[in-house]
Amino acid sequence: MALDPRSPVFQHPDLMVSVSGIRGIIPTGFSSDVIYDALRAFGSWLRGNTVVIGRDSRPSGQFLENIAIGVMQGLGKNVILLGVVPTPSVKAVVNQTGAAGGIMISASHNPIIWNAFKFIGPRGFFTGAKDLEEILEIVKNQSYKPFQFKPGSKLESGSDKIQAHIDAVLSRVNVSAIKKRKFSVFLDAVNGGGSFVLPELLKQLGCKVIPLHCSPDGTFPRPPEPTPDALRQSSRMMKQSGASVGFALDPDADRLVLLTPKKGAISEEYTLPLSFLSYLQTNRPPKKASLTVNLSTSFINEWVASSAGIPTYRSKVGEANVVSEMIQRKSVFGGEGNGGVIDPTIPSFGRDSLSGVAHVLNLLALKGEGIDSVLNGLPAIFMRKIAYKIGGKKTEEIYSQFRSAFPEHGEDVRDGLRLANEDSWIHIRPSNTEPILRVIAEARTKKDLSALIDIAGKIMENS
């Protein structure tokens, strides 16, 4: 989103403002002014008297949590404090308690020197583009509501409310079938927001938990984004553990990557189709059922959906965008290829690692197979995701070069530029969360993918 030049407090190279949150490097981009003004604007924008606050385990999280509590209470808002939890748990508690909104303090997969506010509106939905414009307008006009000398606001622990989120997830799967399998589950929570809640979910599913990095001590012992490269040590430990299946999280536990006994960490793109297969195992889809994914997600999802006679729709990248499209299409399932599973019947109604874990275990239990066997029944994924620093590059000139290189591909310009035909696609777009340009490509064969990447690399080198 382009920021108004009259809002200099929200303009800095170390600050990103989008539907994915207000995030930046502390103290340069995510400065004291940004922190204070963003919280005051959100509290002024909210209609209602209760706010749910959670955070991941970053060392800056506790002081940001304290500031958020003070600002919300000063504006007369009651605060339900969850502590270190997954983002989807904050969203679920907002929805289930009828709170006015919520704040998740997490920069997700960004490095540990970053932090962010992910603002959540009524019913647990992230603030969308229109909401964000209204919040920024309050900052621009300095039209904050005043602090109250006697606000009468309350602070309460919400730890007992997280079980309702777990219960909602359990209601979507065959718990008895999962318990009968007595799965041993390897879990790498990167010492983040999923360190407590995910092991609890697994225990309630009758699983033996083999924990790694499940101590939220303010450190990330591996790169926070759970890519196969970042999970090399975890993959080795998974293979040695004797676990039936493994799961790895990002710091705020909305994204999920699978690990298998034979392969270790696999592509994050498999998480969503495997979870959707679980849905298909346990539900009879309505006649007008659909699946919604974003523009950067693998077409393996279309393969799974079409096998059940279900159409697939695509949205702009970003959870808020996917959810909006799902609501419009009345989709029965959705998500993003970054390991984000969205089951709309769960009150988080967004990317939810708890949902993904439960659905994958449900699929394995009902099929009576191991994870490696199930994966052998799916098409191989040939995809590359490359990040380029934007620097002074002009995106429109880059898009023009890509159009010239792929004249036979149809184009979609809803979110950057996506060029696609039946057998391949390439998506070029500025990131919502980092100052980079993402180039994501997929093809039916390794050879065709290499050709796509070679062309893309030459374009970016010459830009």
- Spatial strand order of the main sheet: 1-2-6-5-3-4-7
Query: What is the CATH superfamily classification of the largest domain?
Result: Alpha-D-Glucose-1,6-Bisphosphate, subunit A, domain 3
Helix/sheet category: alpha/beta
* Shape designation: globular
Question: Tally the helices: what do you get?
Answer: 15
The CATH topology of the largest domain is Alpha-D-Glucose-1,6-Bisphosphate, Chain A, domain 3
Could you report the average pLDDT, rounded to the nearest whole number? 95
Task: Describe the sheet with the most strands.
Answer: 7 strands, mixed
| Strand percent estimate | 15-25%
Low-confidence regions: 1-7
Distance between the termini: 23 Å
Please indicate the count of domains. Answer: 4
Number of strands: 21
What's the CATH first level of the largest domain? Alpha Beta
Helical content class:
25-40%
Radius of gyration: 22 Å
In CATH, the architecture of the largest domain is 3-Layer(aba) Sandwich
What does this structure look like?
With 463 residues, this protein is of the alpha/beta class. The protein has four domains: 8-161, 3-Layer(aba) Sandwich (Alpha-D-Glucose-1,6-Bisphosphate, Chain A, domain 3); 171-266, Alpha-D-Glucose-1,6-Bisphosphate, subunit A, domain 3 (Alpha-D-Glucose-1,6-Bisphosphate, Chain A, domain 3, 3-Layer(aba) Sandwich), CATH 3.40.120; 269-354 and 368-376, Alpha-D-Glucose-1,6-Bisphosphate, subunit A, domain 3 (Alpha-D-Glucose-1,6-Bisphosphate, Chain A, domain 3); 382-461, Alpha-D-phosphohexomutase, C-terminal domain (TATA-Binding Protein, 2-Layer Sandwich), CATH 3.30.310. It contains 15 helices and 21 strands. A hairpin with a 5-residue loop joins β20 (424-430) and β21 (436-443). α9 (271-282) packs parallel to α10. The longest helix is centred in the C-terminal third of the chain and has 16 residues, at 446-461. The protein starts with 14 loop residues before the first strand and ends with a helix.
